[in-house]
Amino acid sequence: MRKKYMRYAALVVAALATTVTIAQPPGSGPPPPPQVSTVTVDQKPVPVTFSYSGVTAASKTVEIRARVRGYLHSRDFEEGTLVKKGQPLFTIDPSTFEADREIAAARVEQIEATRKLAEQEVKRLKSVTVPGAVAAADVDKQEAALAEASASLRLAKAELQRADLELSYTKIEAPMDGLIGKSMKEIGSMVDTGENSLLAVVHQVEPIYVSVRISERDFLAWRADQESGALVRLDNQEPWLEITLNDLSTYEKRGVINFLSPELNTQTGSYEVRAVFENPDLKLRPGQFIKGHIKGWARPASITVPQRAVNQSPLGPFVYVVGEDNVAQQRTIELGQWTGDEWIITSGLSVGDRVIVEGLTKVRPGAVVNPAPAAEKIAAKQPAHDSKQAQQ
């Protein structure tokens, strides 16, 4: 019985050995190293963009107010439309002011006649050559009457000028080109120079302002980078503002930055940066929310890697670097801004490092890989055309 059992066991072992031999044919070994694509790290100046939320505003806002008291006679514009400088807007009933003007004009004519008579009387008295025929007191009295008539004439002319001015105030015209809002008063309303004086508001939108708010932290970092040379002007250009509208379209005009607030807004903890934009087609209206991108800056001698090369772990971002003997190494890095489709690396990489960008799912730390240059050239040899802020 024992011999029979031993013979059965030997047959089982032989069968297993045959199976193993068939499963692993002669000449097979471990799988080949995985194929990966790499880019070689280099340094280059990288354009950067600082992006912030902002809002548009009229470059000028003028309140249209009544300058005389009276009933509103007419409204001569369509609300919410573009008005031109000098275009009639309102008319205040001119009847009273026309009458006042006629009274002032008549007063001038009356005093001119009185002055003319006094002047002739002085000339007549002075023309007498017979000694003692005319008393000196009479001459002095008549000269005083002439001076009084001259002063009265100047006063009457001034009153006429004021009457003309007040009459002109009954016709209210647009002080500039711009968009006009709703009429604040209806026809027939009593208006005056006090609380009831506001009639409408005109907004100048060509050009138009765009303001963005920069946090105190970003402003301090921005200034420190400039002072240290970590941030320089791109091609010695003046920085400019580019805006994205709420429909994600980019406005075609560049904005010229013309104002930086001298003090911090303590309520928002931010500084205002304002730019002026040409707006010939009135695509921009006051109060629109936009995304503002401050451009014209670059970080010199920067190291960048494609975004797809960066992985995340509980310890932070990292990349795989091909080391000696083509062994993959996990390298922890620090990220700066992101520019185009690349990250700026502030620490963790050196010039000449080979960073894996494709085949990452097949890579394990310490494993041998088969590296090949990526299809695109190293990022450092390509000019970067756009950048945007990834961290604020």
How is this fold's topology laid out?
Layout: H1 2-23, E1 35-40, E2 43-65, E3 70-75, E4 82-83, E5 88-92, H2 95-127, H3 136-168, E6 171-173, E7 178-180, E8 190-191, E9 198-215, H4 216-228, E10 232-233, E11 240-244, E12 255-260, E13 270-277, E14 289-306, E15 311-313, E16 316-322, E17 328-332, E18 334-339, E19 342-347, E20 354-358, E21 370-373
Parallel strand pairs: 1-21
Antiparallel strand pairs: 1-20, 2-9, 2-14, 3-5, 3-8, 4-7, 5-6, 7-9, 9-13, 10-14, 11-12, 11-14, 12-13, 14-19, 15-16, 16-17, 16-20, 18-19
Helix pairs in contact: 2-3
Structure characteristics:
Helix Hairpins; 392 residues; single chain; 36% strand; six-stranded mixed β-sheet; OB fold (Dihydrolipoamide Acetyltransferase, E2P); alpha+beta; elongated
Order of helices and strands: HEEEEEHHEEEEHEEEEEEEEEEEE
* Main beta sheet: 6 strands, mixed
Beta-strand portion reads: 35-45%
Q: What structural class do helix, strand and pairing data support?
A: alpha+beta
Instruction: Provide the residue-averaged pLDDT.
Output: 86
**In whole angstroms, how far apart are the ends?**
84 Å
Give the tally of structural domains.
Answer: 3
- How many β strands by DSSP? 21
Brief sketch in words of this structure:
The protein is 26% helix and 36% strand. The chain has 392 residues and is of the alpha+beta class.
